[in-house]
Amino acid sequence: MSTIERAEVLVTSPGRTFVTLRITTSDGVVGLGDATLNGRELAVASYLRDHLVPLLIGRDPARIEDTWQYLYRGAYWRRGPVTMTAIAGVDTALWDIKGKVAGLPLYQLLGGRCRDGVLVYSHASGRDVPELLDDVERFLSLGYKAVRAQAAVPGIGGTYGIRKGAVYEPAATELPDEQSWDTEAYLGFAPRYLEAVRERFGFGFHLLHDVHHRLSPIEAARFGKDVEPSRLFWMEDPTPAEDQAAFRLIRRHTTTPIATGEVLTSIWDVQQLITEQLIDYVRTTVVHAGGITHLRRIVDLAALHQVRTGSHGATDLSPVSMAAAVHLDLAVPNFGIQEYMGHPPEAHEVFHGGPTLADGMLHPSEEPGLGVTYDDEAAARFPYRQRYLPVARRLDGSVHDW
Ligand code: GCO
Ligand code: MG
């Protein structure tokens, strides 16, 4: 029997930080799993290195479900981003190994293709409306069929989702950047620029918008009603995601589709959202929701209730996660859309291979497993740098959801 011989926790910061678990079997097969938790990444590195790696050595790499149950139930302490991201790293690496042993790309092990390619959306942003419109034009001319639009709210310093350099990275400072927030200013401004996007470019593509947990349920209801004429593909995280029952109120008032779940980590955290049909798209991911084994369970529950997938795919999900996401997206019947922001060029010096983009769709690698390799020499050129996500304060100085 082949056994797990080595499990290494690799931390590197090529443009931004990634935590990767690399498992090597006694037969010399190597599997990769992403275990990145932006701004709290070393907690996962320690969870893996100090608590999970000793449990993995000597185990049968083929027993993916059993390993998942062993690590989850065996911890006694349930759920939560650190635990679920660490388990995801192990689970993804074991699926990579299984694909390599079978000589098949991962999507074949998950049931094979359900579609020709994976529809993605990318991020257009601007410091003002003209800059946003230019950015939307850029993505449409690149062939994207779906674009998320965010513009900085005038008069408040800095907000989420606005790209500064070539690639958006919110965890950019050594200590958390303090940004300000004004709900009324946002509610007056955001619906107008979404209208401006539709006026200029029409309705022949999907338009998305991320509210980033900033509104109360009744404010989110007002926002959803207000943007109905712009026919959004979705409004994302209209209110903090952990309050599942709050989505009932939003639902009662608007037909704007709702997506949530990028910060949620288990089937229990999305159960009410899905079974009560309070959302249209579930944004849980391979990396933060316990790996392929657990995310597949969430996706199946969602399918029963006509909820589709719309997995998080920001720059903080490594190329390993993105590859895993695309294999799963290709193979599940209730796929909706995949977020895809790309990565800084340095990240591609460390991670080679992975999905390719053509006509607004991602296509997985046909290599066995995930199809991504890790370059140790390149990684050594990008030592770990600590960076934090920002925090937001209301105009009166009190802390708001970032
Ligand atoms: C998105 C997200 C991100 C997050 C980021 C936090 O929808 O893409 O909201 O951009 O802010 O992943 O690290
Ligand atoms: Mg988001």
Automatic annotation (TrEMBL):
GO BP of this protein: amino acid catabolic process; carbohydrate catabolic process
Domain called Mandelate racemase/muconate lactonizing enzyme C-terminal: residue spans: 129-257
Catalytic class of the enzyme: lyase
Record-listed E.C. numbers: 4.2.1.8
Keyword Lyase: yes
Keywords associated with the record: Lyase
NCBIfam families: ManoateDhtManD, PRK15072.1
Name the record gives this protein: Mannonate dehydratase
